[in-house]
Request: fold
Amino acid sequence: MINKITSRDNKLLKTVKSLHKKKGREQTGLYFAEGVRLVDEALLHIPDAIEYLLVSEEFADKNKNKTQTEIAGIFGVSQVQISRLEKKILQRLRSQLA
Reply:
């Protein structure tokens, strides 16, 4: 599921911005990994620790019709890891919207 962030006032975007500072990371207990290499390493080694996966609009448009297997190939991980990550993210989003 892809949700487009259209406002600078978006709560998630503000949280991500706060992670650039130590205080933001300490307050949220979250860390921000930027770039394909770091995201790839996180997907390989600590997939359950991933809270959100943010991508550029260009990346989303380019890959929106790809299967989980194809996305897994981009990041060099298994389809199962992508499936688990997607399920986890959807559960979090649903609980936040409830």
